[in-house]
Write a structure and sequence with these properties.
With about 230 residues, this protein is an all-beta fold. A four-stranded mixed beta sheet has the order 4-11-10-7, with no helix packed on it. The protein has a four-stranded mixed beta sheet with strand order 13-20-19-16, with no helix packed on it. A three-stranded antiparallel beta sheet has the order 5-9-8, with no helix packed on it. It is flat. The mean pLDDT is about 90.
């Protein structure tokens, strides 16, 4: 601030306060789950999370599932502080009585008033497939120089499934990945090869936590984490 007569200088500090002007958004607004009717009550199914560019209490606070006879939803907190939904089976499924379910998942922020976004969960009740993919390692630790070229092979993750035929075929994907992770890494859905998609910058980010899902053609999936350290 500059004042004249007499000439004086004052230093002012402005604090920008976030307002709740964005609603939670699901990147995948139509999810498909194939769940075996042999799944026991208490089985959990992590779901893809919503994103909200607001911060603090204006970010996502809770997830809500539409009323139904079989499932409830829990709001979990990941290591980076973001919240994601986890579906919990409360009652055994019966494919002969109800082969399909359609639920509405709502992500609600903590603003006043709160804002929300929705996604549809389509559940196919199937039988037979009773083995989930298992990774050779639950945790991979890798180091990569920041000058590594785009397309550089970081690591290959591998999972196996005891089922045979189509029930044993595995597809790999990034799981609950932030926008930053999706821009930086890509995974081959068939081979599990994780490659660099964007140039790294040690001065900006030194560590990445990449969650990987291995899913078979049925309801089951396995998870692993790749901790990537960027070297200067």
């Amino acid at each position: 601030v500059l004042l004249e007569n007499p000439l004086q200088f004052f230093q002012a500090e402005l604090q920008v306060i976030d307002i709740n002007d964005h609603s939670p958004v699901f990147v995948d607004r139509d999810m498909l789950l194939k769940i075996s009717e042999s799944s026991p009550p208490g089985t959990t199914f992590p779901l893809k999370n919503a994103q909200d560019v607001d911060v603090g209490r204006n970010n996502i606070e809770t997830y809500i599932i539409s009323p139904n006879s079989y499932f409830r939803v829990l709001t979990r907190k990941s290591s980076d502080g973001s919240r994601y939904p986890e579906l919990v089976l409360d009652k055994a499924l019966d494919r002969e009585q109800e082969p399909e379910l359609r639920l509405t998942l709502t992500a609600q922020d903590g603003g006043s008033p709160p804002r929300s976004g929705i996604a549809q969960i389509n559940i196919e009740v199937v039988d037979i497939n009773d083995n989930a993919p298992e990774f050779e390692q639950s945790l991979y630790r890798v180091k990569i120089p920041e000058d590594s070229p785009i397309g550089f092979l970081i690591v290959t993750v591998s999972a196996t499934d005891a089922d045979i035929g189509v029930n044993g075929e595995i597809s790999y994907s990034l799981f609950q990945a932030s926008e930053q992770i999706c821009k930086t890494f890509e995974i081959n859905s068939m081979t599990g090869e994780i490659r660099l998609k964007k140039q790294l910058d040690f001065e900006r980010i030194q560590f990445y936590e990449v969650n990987i899902e291995a899913r078979d053609s049925g309801s089951f999936s396995g998870k692993c984490t790749v901790l990537t350290q960027v070297l200067d």
